[in-house]
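Morning, I've got a small favour to ask if you have a moment. I owe you a coffee for this, so here goes:

…
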Amino acid sequence: MTIASYNDLKTSVSDFIHRSDNSTAVVDQIMLGEKRIQRELRTADMETAYTGTIASGVIAVPTDFLEWRAVYINDSVAYRLEPK
């Protein structure tokens, strides 16, 4: 089945869960799927370089921060930090 609209998606999910009597369950399943994708998916356009200053062992992160991909401390030599 080609899914070209939100209504097509609701119909497809309804068929998948074998429930046509409860549109609330279908909408909930779609919402849970969206939340899982948002939580787990990482794409290249979400990445950006960030430069900050460490003060008292703490660095402020951007408001849209999700997770570090790599962290380096630049001194005379760049050191990559590893999670512990």
Q: What stands out?
A: The CA atoms of residues 53 and 59 lie 6 Å apart. DSSP finds two helices and two strands in the chain.
